[in-house]
Backbone:
């Protein structure tokens, strides 16, 4: 069920790429902070009446504490240019299909688009490394690792495409991380697939997204992860991140080089996530059925990290013994913490930063190091 509220915009804040933050006065609730996706509902101004979706906010769920602007009904000048003003605009992919907020986009392989002929023939990734992680927070760490590996070789940073699946947020604009990484030129482009939307390119499936990364964007490697706000039920199979295994199956089918980024924690209070998360065991040990590299950090001498990563090594080795399609690759962590600290975004996973849970980010970063090393 959707909970709708109506209010009046009192203040427009700065926001970030594709997003405007507003303070909305709602009768009986006072001021409510809300997000307006400018390419979907438009740009509100002070005094505008807006319709808000407060469903997750009212339940205290993980929307970052925001309501979502669903419409600016009284001022058509605020609405984004698109189908309402240009019915001949090319593209016929509908994302968030058959919901009240479905949106129309031009797919990268749409017949009306410039890349249809390329993707009509494309059937191989030509050995492109593909890193899959189950949490969005792994993305900047994977990129930091890949860039570090390139710098050690005296090479230019690799061209990296981010493929966002639809397990978390559907609008890519929700991710401040992606906006900051693009601004810092740490990633070349983004591709949204499934029901997710708002990337530089739009794709129907993760397969098409990976092919577009290679043949349209010319990416050296791709990183696949869901958007912010994963969904989990505390069960083995009821977690949106298990799709990381499906992404690596797609990479293998298309002739890529699948690289599994482990979900690790030394600070999570839940036993099932301490050391190697049970979600990584499920995604890469059972959902993934094709050969892939499972990358683990070499335990350093640092006692604080060493104990956790020694446990991860043991758990990863056990996983590989049980799943013969996996090949364990161990990568040293020298210089990685410094590279993570210098990233253009703050490392944060499940509310914990680099200082609180360094093992989480090291595990993602070594997958990036390995993926870059596969390029030679």
Residues:
């Amino acid at each position: 069920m959707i909970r709708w509220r109506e209010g009046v915009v009192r203040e427009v804040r700065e926001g970030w790429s594709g997003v405007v933050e507003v303070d909305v006065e709602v009768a009986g609730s006072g001021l409510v902070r809300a997000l307006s996706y400018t390419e979907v509902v438009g740009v509100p101004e002070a005094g505008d009446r807006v319709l808000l979706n407060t469903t997750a906010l009212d339940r205290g769920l993980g929307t970052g504490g925001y309501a979502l602007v669903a419409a600016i009904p009284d001022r058509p000048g605020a609405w984004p240019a698109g189908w309402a003003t240009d019915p001949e605009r090319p593209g016929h992919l509908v994302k968030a299909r058959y919901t009240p907020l479905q949106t129309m986009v031009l797919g990268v392989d749409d017949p009306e688009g410039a890349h249809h002929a390329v993707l009509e023939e494309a059937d191989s990734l030509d050995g492109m490394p593909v890193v899959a992680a189950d949490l969005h927070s792994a993305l900047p760490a994977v990129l930091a690792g890949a860039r570090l590996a390139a710098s050690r070789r005296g090479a230019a940073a690799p061209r990296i495409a981010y493929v966002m699946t639809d397990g978390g947020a559907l609008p890519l604009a929700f991710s401040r991380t992606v906006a900051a990484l693009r601004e810092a030129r740490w990633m070349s482009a983004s591709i949204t697939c499934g029901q997710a939307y708002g990337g530089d390119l739009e794709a129907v499936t993760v397969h098409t997204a990976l092919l577009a990364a290679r043949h349209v964007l010319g990416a050296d490697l791709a990183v696949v992860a869901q958007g912010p706000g994963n969904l989990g039920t505390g069960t083995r199979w009821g977690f949106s991140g298990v799709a990381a295994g499906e992404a690596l199956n797609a990479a293998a089918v298309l002739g890529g080089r699948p690289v599994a980024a482990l979900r690790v924690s030394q600070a999570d209070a839940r036993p099932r996530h301490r050391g190697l998360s049970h979600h990584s065991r499920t995604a890469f040990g059972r959902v993934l059925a094709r050969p892939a590299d499972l990358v683990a950090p070499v335990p350093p001498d640092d006692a604080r990290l060493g104990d956790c990563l020694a446990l991860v090594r043991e758990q990863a080795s056990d996983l590989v013994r049980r799943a013969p399609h996996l090949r364990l690759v161990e990568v040293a962590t020298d210089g990685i913490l410094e590279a993570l600290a210098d990233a253009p975004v703050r490392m944060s996973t499940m509310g914990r930063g680099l200082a609180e849970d360094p093992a989480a980010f090291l595990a993602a970063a070594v997958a990036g190091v390995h993926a870059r090393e596969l390029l030679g």
The first strand starts at residue 4 and ends at 12. The domain at 4-78 is CATH 2.40.50 (OB fold (Dihydrolipoamide Acetyltransferase, E2P)). The two ends are 51 Å apart (CA to CA). The chain has two domains: 4-78, 118-374.
